[in-house]
TrEMBL record:
One of the Pfam families matching this protein, by short name: YfbR-like
Name of the protein in question: HD domain-containing protein
Source species: Geotoga petraea
Gene3D superfamilies: Hypothetical protein af1432
SUPFAM superfamilies: HD-domain/PDEase-like (SSF109604)
Length: 363
């Protein structure tokens, strides 16, 4: 497949920070922000035609790929570039796609991840609004302490929201989703993975969740799965760690220490998610339909894709530590332990991906 090096490179999203030229009390990276936006988009578009939702999620996933080549270019800078020359940004993206070929050797995958779907005109407008709401959430968190630094981006963001002139009922619906979801998202952004160990490259649970969705989607494209299975894979991967917003990050080895402990924790997670969703009617209307995918993200055919992506994400996190000189042997042991596990979990031959990751980790 030739995707191992690509998956390693995509973990650069953990170190590309938003608002990087401003002080912050919560430093959001691109994966954190993309998770937040994907969650809000999923709920907002859930009632639309399934194919339209999948097209939107495809765009949400592949739009980040150029960033691993370009890094993050702030929105105001990007707007100025386009104002100076409307065609230059397209040329920049074309060059980044050419450079991407160094990481993706599979022509079939390359053709799919370098194209975005054309969305309905109204959906484009809604998507722009959701992107601005995601930015507003991040601004508001940091504006509490660094008001003078965030006043200008806040005002510009508000002007952009008003220009979209969204239907008032739709705005109210999105605001209700956002209020319920961001309370959860900010918890997941503050939950750090592998929190018992020093890490050179930190990743939050929210960043990990986005990365798992990204990886599972790319694996699904490589296997040409149908829309129903694709929907289940995207949904289960996006929400697979949602319960940790309530329970914290209870690692799998702990769950398996005592017989039946994992079942008790699963029941506790379901109770927490249900309690939260029942307090938020708009959210509950969606949650009740996808609850089996949230509570059992690794079940059935879709679950094998999600579990494979989850293990791949953890292997990449170990790889990042090993490659950046972290001498903690736990990362090396975890790398090889999960390498063995993933080969028995994956629904297809994943040896070439794992071998490529291992080569680039230890070369």
């Amino acid at each position: 497949m030739g995707l191992g090096k690509f998956f390693i490179k995509m973990s650069d999203l953990f170190t590309i920070y938003r608002w990087s030229n401003l002080p912050a009390i919560v430093r959001f990276n691109e994966a954190d922000s993309s998770f937040s936006n994907a969650m809000l988009s999923f709920f907002t578009f859930y009632d639309q035609d399934r194919e339209d939702l999948l097209k939107l999620m495809h765009n949400k996933i592949v739009e980040n790929i150029p960033k691993i080549i370009l890094s993050d270019i702030p929105l105001n800078t990007k707007k100025r570039i386009i104002e100076e020359d409307p065609n230059i940004w397209d040329r920049v993206l074309d060059i980044s796609k050419e450079e991407l070929k160094d990481f993706v050797k599979d022509d079939n995958i390359m053709s799919k991840i370098t194209q975005e779907y054309n969305l309905k005109k109204e959906n484009i407008k809604i998507e722009q609004y959701l992107r601005l709401i995601t930015a507003k959430n991040e601004i508001n968190i940091n504006k509490r302490v660094f008001k003078e630094f965030y006043e200008e981006p806040y005002s510009e963001n508000e002007r952009s929201l008003q220009k979209l002139n969204l239907n008032i009922d739709l705005k109210r619906k999105i605001d209700q989703y956002n209020k319920a979801l961001f309370d959860i998202i900010i918890r997941l952004t503050n939950l750090k993975r592998w929190n018992k160990m020093h890490r050179n490259i930190n990743s939050s649970v929210s960043a990990h969740s986005y990365y798992v969705m990204f990886t599972s989607y790319i694996l699904s494209l490589s296997e040409n799965v149908d829309n129903e299975l694709m929907f289940n894979i995207i949904t289960a991967s996006l929400f697979h760690d949602l319960p940790e917003a309530f329970t914290g990050d209870v690692i799998s080895p702990t769950k398996r220490k005592v017989e039946k402990l994992d079942k008790i924790i699963t029941q506790i997670e379901e109770d927490y998610v249900l309690s939260w969703s029942l307090k938020n009617k708009q959210v509950n209307d969606v949650i009740k339909n996808i609850m089996p995918l949230i509570i059992n993200p690794f079940k059935g055919e879709y679950g094998r894709f999600v579990r494979t992506a989850d293990l791949l994400a953890a292997i990449i996190e170990c790889s990042n530590e090993i490659r950046t000189g972290n001498s903690n042997e736990n990362f090396r042991r975890a790398f090889f332990g999960m390498k063995t596990e993933i080969k028995g979990t994956s629904p297809f031959d994943i040896y070439s991906i794992i071998d490529e990751i291992e080569y680039n980790t230890f070369k």
